[in-house]
Design brief:
By secondary structure, this protein is mostly helical. The chain has 12 helices and no strands. About 5% of the residues have low confidence.
Length: about 190
């Protein structure tokens, strides 16, 4: 999956109706009025901008200006991370063994960590802004909030993301039972 399209989809899902209207207004000089009238979602708008080559993976100035104008600091930060090289599927850069270990660890953690998951992801270094974004994207699904937070950590750390760091963070948060279960499952995986 194209990371830039994923980013645009994420932006689209987080836009309110008023923000979409503001973005459409800002595009009046780039997109004809008739086309703008057909835009119902952020994805519709971004699709037109992509087709007209107003935005591209390497050409995000107009996108950045629009987001700044509607004062969405969280989206500006996401775009900045993308620009600085945070794009791409980090999981594909991990060796096979580490990838399998992380998948097992993520499953165990999501199944066993409850309402204190924010403490764990903060210990892993995920910012409150990112946590808030994840909460907004998955408001009623605790397991998905935790899984997305772990994936955010994995993306942020890149090749440096290690299961040992997850276990250490669990122990630092006094989640020793979960850490023991992760270690047990990893031993089962090696057998």
């Amino acid at each position: 999956m194209d990371p830039f399209l994923s980013l645009l989809h994420s932006f689209s899902m987080s836009l309110s109706d008023n923000e979409l209207s503001a973005l459409k207004f800002l595009c009046l000089s780039k997109i004809g009025k008739r086309k703008l009238e057909s835009v119902k979602t952020g994805s519709d708008l971004f699709t037109i901008l992509l087709e007209q080559r107003e935005i591209e993976r390497e050409k995000v100035d107009f996108l950045q200006l629009m987001i700044k104008t509607i004062k969405r600091e969280d989206l500006i930060m996401q775009l900045q991370e993308f620009i600085e090289g945070g794009q791409g599927d980090v999981v594909n850069h991990l060796d096979g063994k580490e990838k399998r270990q992380q998948n097992v660890a993520f499953e165990v953690i999501c199944d066993n960590v409850g309402k204190n998951w924010k403490m764990l992801v903060r210990r892993l270094g995920i910012s409150d802004t990112k946590i808030d974004r994840i909460l907004a994207a998955n408001p009623y699904n605790l397991q998905e909030q935790l899984m997305q937070s772990l994936r955010e950590w994995q993306k942020w750390k890149g090749k440096e993301a290690k299961v040992a760091d997850l276990i250490k963070a669990l122990r630092d948060c006094k989640m020793n039972l979960v850490a023991d279960r992760v270690e047990h499952e990893l031993l089962q995986l090696e057998d």
